[in-house]
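Figure 3 (text version): structure tokens given as input.
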């Protein structure tokens, strides 16, 4: 019997994950179908009950359910527990295990960004949503000693700092109000800048002015395209990287959890590029067609 893997989100139409995961199943001859389930929050509990059935191999969870799903799961991995967010489910009999593969996805992206240099110890993070949670945990695990979070709504960044209280007890994790002058002075002390806001996803704007970007910065934008921020960073002589590697590797980690097999990365990467070139819009937070008119508020959850 063909196995089922579902993406539960709202909305989920035309997900890039569908193309990426189906290509991987087909490549390895795994008889599985990747389905998109658009479920409003009120229908989430029923969907979670349904995926406990034997025909399901696994599940992806995306916006707006990543945090809401946590209490519905029987067991959480350390990453899911610490971040308080789940993007992948596996089954152990009728029990569901919640994982957060955005964390390893981010870690691969960070390693690639830093390259052969020594891992820096200080970072500035823009944004405090679901993606930012995976980033903060990834930075903690990479040994960062000081991470300053700026967010439009300061209370959300403060909540995130509080959430990580114990895991970040040994370091300086703080939230600061979004003022350009404060961001500029923090950037002067750091080498790594990460954008985990959705600014730039649906419009060609940058969260911060290009003039405050120094040439020695390493800049990672979680958004899966060459954003204004990344172009400004390159113009300043900085190293810039988009969210493709994180997206690919969170998907590869999920695939390995479901199937017990290493993900065919090249095939998945090609499927992503093809889907994107075809103008497919995503539910995972990454844009598809450059011209997609998705309202900023409807943006993502990685
Ligand atoms: P959330 O909806 O949880 O968070 C959105 C973040 O963007 C919040 O910090 C929010 O601030 C901020 N924001 C949105 N609009 C504005 C605005 N107009 N002005 C200032 N701040 C704004 O989304 P996620 O954390 O899940 O995703 C954030 C980004 O990360 C997305 O662009 C997504 O593409 C990307 N992503 C990529 C992944 C990948 O695999 N490459 C994985 C996960 C995310 P506030 O709290 O004040 O509203």
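Below: residues designed for each position.
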């Amino acid at each position: 019997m063909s196995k089922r893997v579902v993406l539960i989100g709202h909305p989920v139409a035309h997900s890039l994950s569908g193309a990426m995961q189906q290509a991987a199943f087909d490549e390895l001859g795994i008889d599985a179908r990747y389905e998109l389930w658009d479920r409003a929050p009120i229908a989430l509990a029923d969907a979670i009950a349904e995926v406990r059935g034997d025909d399901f191999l696994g599940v992806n969870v995306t916006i707006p359910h990543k945090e809401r799903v946590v209490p519905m799961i029987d067991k959480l991995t350390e990453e899911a527990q610490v971040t308080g967010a789940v993007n992948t489910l596996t089954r152990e009999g009728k029990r569901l295990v919640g994982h957060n593969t955005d964390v390893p996805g981010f870690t691969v992206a960070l390693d690639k960004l830093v390259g052969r240099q020594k891992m820096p110890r200080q970072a500035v993070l823009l944004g405090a949503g679901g993606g930012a949670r995976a980033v903060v945990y990834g930075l903690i695990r990479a040994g960062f000693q000081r991470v300053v979070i700026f967010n439009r709504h300061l209370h959300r960044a403060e909540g995130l700092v509080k959430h990580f209280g114990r895991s970040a007890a040994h370091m300086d994790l703080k939230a600061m109000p979004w003022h350009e002058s404060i961001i500029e002075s923090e950037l002067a002390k750091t080498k790594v800048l990460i954008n985990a806001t959705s600014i730039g996803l649906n419009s060609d704007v940058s969260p911060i002015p290009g003039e405050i970007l120094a040439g020695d910065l390493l800049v990672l934008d979680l958004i899966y395209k060459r954003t204004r921020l990344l172009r400004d960073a390159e113009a300043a002589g900085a190293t810039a990287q988009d969210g493709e590697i994180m997206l690919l590797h969170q998907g590869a980690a999920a695939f390995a959890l479901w199937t017990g097999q290493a993900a065919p990365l090249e095939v998945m990467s090609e499927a992503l590029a093809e889907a994107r070139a075809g103008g497919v819009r995503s539910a995972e937070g990454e844009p598809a067609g450059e011209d997609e008119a998705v309202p900023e508020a409807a943006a993502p959850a990685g």
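The CA atoms of residues 53 and 94 lie 7 Å apart.
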